Amino acid sequence: MKLEIPDAVADTTGFDDSEMLEFLSVCLYKAKKINGVQGGKILGTSEIEFHGLLEKYGQYVNYGIDDFQEEIDNLTDF
C-alpha cells in the first residue's frame, strides 16, 4: 500500500516523512489495529525498538491481563 499525503497537509503537521510514518504506526498501535511486531515492520525496526518509540509519543505497550495469562500458560507448557 502506498499512502500519499498532500504536501500542504503534511506541512501543517511539522513532521518529516519518517516522523509521519512513526506517528501513523503509533496511532494504529494505540487503536489496537496492529501489534508491536507489525509496528516494527512498518518502520523497518524490531518489535523492541518500536516499543521504545512509543514513549516518544506518550504511549505504552498494549499489555493486558490476557497477555499475562497467555505468557503464564506458555511457561507451564514447558
From TrEMBL:
Pfam families given in the database record: UPF0175
Domain of life the protein comes from: Bacteria
Record's protein name: Uncharacterized protein
